[in-house]
Amino acid sequence: MKNLDKRYRRNIRHSLSFYVCSLILTALCVLVVNVMYTSVDALDTTFSTIMKDGHVEDAQFTTLVSIPETERTELEGKYGIVLEAIRFADLKEDNYDLRVFRETGKLNLVQVVDGSAISGPGEILLNPDFATAHDIVPGDAFTVAGIEYRVAGTAVRPDYLYAQRNPSDFYVDDFGFGQITMGAQDFERVPNAQTYYAVEYSEDNSVAFRKDVHQSYMTLSYLSDAANNRISTCRDLGKEFGLMLAALLPVLFGMNTMIVAVVLGRKIKREQRQIGTLLSFGYRSAEIIRHYLWYAIIPGVIGSVVGTILSTVFCRPLTAAVAADFDSPEYITRPHLPSLLVCLIVPTLLYVLTTVVAVKRLVRKPITVLLAGSSAEAKKRGRILAGSKMSFRSKFKIRSLISHKSRTIVVVLGLFFSSFLCSVGFVFADSWKDIITDGLDAAGSYEYQYYMNTLAADAKGGEKVLTASFESGDDHSIFVLSGLQEDPQYYKLETKSGAPVEYGMYYMTTNAAELFGIKAGDPFTFINPATAESYTVGIRDLIADNTQCAVYTSLSEAETLFGLPEGSYNLILSDRPLDLDKNLVLEERSKESIKEQLEFGVDLLMSMIYVIIAAGVLLCVVTVYLTVNMLVEENRPTISMLKVLGYKTKEINRILLYTNNILVPICLAAGIVACLGLSALLFRSFIDMFNMYIEPSVTTQSILIIGAIQIGGYLLALTLLKRKAYHVDMVESLKDTRE
Asked: In the 8-state DSSP scheme, what is residue 120?
């Protein structure tokens, strides 16, 4: 009876490195795909559930004349909406700022994460990330406006999941800004209380509602959920990451599985003598195919299962890492079934198909050809550069690269994608640092901005600006239109074309141009969010500024557009702190604070960069090890003959192991260029999230580090293989004299 069980065990022992590397690549691929898709699905599901259950606002607005509760009820019946007055107060403590909210009853309902809800006077709720940053747990005491309260628990607000202090901020400061919810009775003791109105629409009638409110109560500001980063960032996060994963992960998944499939195909091709022997012993083609299917099933099934198990372990930590900027609720983590099924089935299926095709191609050949081995191919390789006076070492390397195309493709793919992954982290970090060092100065030479709550303030040495926010585009994205003095002191407006700025014309920053798809000379239509009134202006040119989403014109042109009297302004710029009446200052900003926010973002980004770089190094080491090990196995007779001819092991290693050296710098350069191209696309899609356009860049220092990492991983793989040639016996060359 024909039995191949012993051959299974011998094959596994002999090809252990192949199985280990294939398992690692398959498991790594499955792990990344499963974890990323599951994490994105968890974020999307969690945020959607919180917003739905908490009845997040569709918009918020303020009015000059307050809207009485009875009239709010009438508006709700007239337009089929939900309308609620949101009471809050901003308080400054020594080390942080607080925004205190009165507990709501209809919209923006808080949802408890830890502890319990407010049960009576003297109890408050904190947002989770602020509580964690200050080591506060339910039951602790916390002081608000000089009064001590008991922390009943931590809770998230659906409108503050991305808890920016201001929607125009660049980043979230968990330590420096917290949200507190308290009962109506306790809130009455909080000083400086303010009111805005939140609205939830059930019909497409927001324009009619806005016009009615403005006519009756004089709307001062209006912010839709699409233009509110605190809401839109959470709502769009799953979609944005989903698009990125849809573009990147299938390529990574396909590349990894193709590498293993190609190596598997070449491994089976090296078995042609054994297949010829089995055929001569009477084995049928189907029996041989079933035997070699284990070559595919072992790495496919075990690698997929191991990767899936690991993904269940790393899913929650990665979800928390991706959502580091968002308030931390209990994430709804569940397997992403489409990616789970693909990861469990596709690798094994691809490996099985590769095996079946490879074996079928071999069993169709005559048995005498199979038993002859690869002598015909060896003769064909020997004719490459046969007449050249090139050294033997150079000829051998070129022949290995040209004649073994599939093996070369595997090396190129592995080196390219490992270089790409390493580059991703450095390109992201360098691009952010460019914004910090150069981008902020492009916005103007001022150091301080004072937003006034009146149009009748004295500048006291500062530069006057008239500014207002408008919305444009299908997503109702917000931009700032500013009227400047002629020859402004703090704005150095330089056009992208190099043409001089004409005072009184409209100019758009490159950041806004990327967001709205505007070019120099295009008309630009936008609306007043409060009144829904539409305007159209012509954009004369673009201003080189990737940090501000803005349009600039003259003071007089802005006054005409806004319908304000001559001499109006509501923003003061200065290169030093100004002594202004605090009652007239709505908000004060400094470049230093913006810089600190951006640097904080880079620090958080670096933790993710290290993970990406580690994946790139691992991919490089495993791929190079797998392919060079294949090179050694395929050249065992050649290594044996070189030993017979007197070559030492070190010399053989220099000839054999360094065959792929020329591919390293080529793949390194290609990976960096591809990363820059992909980063440009991703940064454009993130303009809404970060309120800026980040120009992709990479420094010379980063390129050198990427190269060092890539070469280090490459040399590590070669070091692990150096003893392979040592274990090849001289007798190998005598086993087949025809070779």
From this structure: S
Residue 17 resides in a domain: yes
Joined tokens for residue 317? 């930590």
497 burial type by CB count under 10 A (0-12 exposed, 13-18 middle, 19+ buried): exposed
Residue 656 lies in a domain: yes
Handedness of CA 382, 384, 390, 393 (dihedral sign): negative
Task: Report the share of the chain in percent with pLDDT over 70.
Answer: 81
487-531 pLDDT, tens digit per residue, is 888 877 888 888 888 888 999 998 888 888 899 999 999 988 887
Residue 269, C-beta contacts closer than 8 angstroms, at least 6 positions apart: 358, 362
C-alpha dist (Å) from residue 104 to 110, 187, 467: 8, 12, 32
Give the integer Cα–Cα distance in Å for 709 and 703: 10
Domain check: are 267 and 131 in the same one?
no
Count CB-CB contacts under 10 A for residue 338.
10
Say if residue 1's pLDDT is above 50. no
d(CA 728, CA 739): 16
Question: Are residues 714 and 656 part of one domain?
Answer: yes
Task: Determine how β-strand 97-102 pairs with β-strand 177-182.
Answer: parallel
Largest Cα span, the chain: 104
Last residue of a domain, one of 533, 562, 583: 583
Q: Are residues 229 and 176 in the same domain?
A: no
532 with 462, same domain: the answer is yes
Residue 525 in contact with residue 560, Cβ under 8 Å? no
Tokens of 37: 């898709």
Residue holding tokens 């030492």? 648
> Computed from CA positions of residues 61, 67, 69, 75, in that sequence, does the dihedral angle turn out positive or negative?
negative
Domain boundary among 552, 583, 614: 583
Quick one: pLDDT at residue 536? 92
| Nearest alpha-carbon partner for 587 in 176, 97, 190, 160 | 97
d(CA 465, CA 479): 15
Chain segment 674-699, per-residue pLDDT in tens: 888 888 877 776 665 566 667 788 88
The 3-state DSSP class for residue 303 equals helix
What is the distance between the terminal CA atoms of the chain, rounded to a whole angstrom?
A: 34
Which residue range forms the structural domain that includes residue 714?
A: 404-443+592-739
Domain count, the chain: 4
> What is the SS3 assignment for 216?
helix
Distance CA 616, CA 316 (A): 22
Does 681 or 47 have the greater pLDDT score? 47
**β-pairing, 141-144 with 59-63?**
unpaired
- What would the pLDDT profile of 168-192 be if each residue is shown by its tens digit? 666 677 888 899 999 999 999 888 8
Residue whose entry in the numeric block shows the structure tokens 């150096």 = 722
Res. 714: pLDDT tops 60: yes
The answer on pLDDT for 380 being more than 60 is no
Cα 608–Cα 613–Cα 615 angle in degrees, nearest 5: 100
Q: Pick from 124, 134, 83, 82: which is nearest to 103 by CA?
A: 124
- What angle do the packed helices 69-79 and 206-217 form, to 10 degrees? 150
Q: Which amino acid is at 558?
A: A
Q: So what's the pLDDT on residue 655? A: 73
Binned at pLDDT 50, 70 and 90, residue 739 comes out as very low
Alpha-carbon 615 to chain mean position: 15
Q: pTM here? A: 0.68
The per-residue pLDDT for range 595-652, each reduced to its tens digit, is 766 666 566 556 666 766 777 677 777 777 776 777 677 677 777 777 777 777 777 7
394 within a domain of the structure (yes/no)? no
pLDDT for the residue numbered 261: 74
Q: Taking a C-beta distance cutoff of 8 angstroms, is the pair 42, 331 a contact? A: yes
CB 279 within 8 A of CB 255: no
